[in-house]
Amino acid sequence: MPRIAVDAMGGDQAPHEIVAGAALAAARGIDVVLVGDAGRLQPLVDALDTALPVHHASEVIEMADDPAVAIREKKDSSIAVAARLVRDGAADGMVSAGSTGGVMAAAAFLIGRLPGISRPAIASVFPTGHIVIDAGANLECKPHHLLQFAVMGSAVAAVYHSRVNPRVGLLNIGEEDGKGRDLEKDAFALLAAAPAVNFVGNVEGRDLANETADVFVTDGFTGNVLLKTSEGVGRALYRMIMTSLSANE
Length: 249
Fold this sequence. Notes:
The chain has 249 residues and is α/β, with parallel strands linked by helices. The chain folds into two domains: 3-110; 124-230, Isopropylmalate Dehydrogenase, CATH 3.40.718.10. The protein has eight helices and nine strands.
């Protein structure tokens, strides 16, 4: 079974909630190794009466740290140590709820890129199941980057949805061919000619509510705006529903 290195020092309420979540995963048969300050982690593991292994890391990459600088200077950070476990074959993957930039830097500089991939990207799975890539890692992109995102997003969707040949759409301001900036126009041509991508054409933000595509490909700036806007809409709808229910009591 694949082993997952978990950064136990990053995220809200870390390390307590991270250790508790890792214990739940282990109870379901997932092979987990916690990475972080052993002096803080081991008592939490013992209190849960579990046998989770702990790999010591003495430093933490904070949210305010510059990711590229931190990954070089904090070589014993939990994120960096977890990434090296993957690189060295001691783990098959890593999970972190900590610094997104730190994880991206660790993936690029310590684990390394796959052949043919020039930039890592963030794939965000929306509540509807749609996958948006890139969701914030690359603010400026070239057309071939979007093609690479489409290939990576298809791989994620194939596993997440257990679906053969996931549908890929290019996020744009209209469904018609020829829409968008030069980036989208040139990326459209590359995607349409790519045999490894099941390209269904341009899609719009509203298509996140339907089954037009499984993967939405875009640059990181646009993808992050879409992600944060969706989060805000979700919160607003929740408040409106709760206010309406309270008024009808």
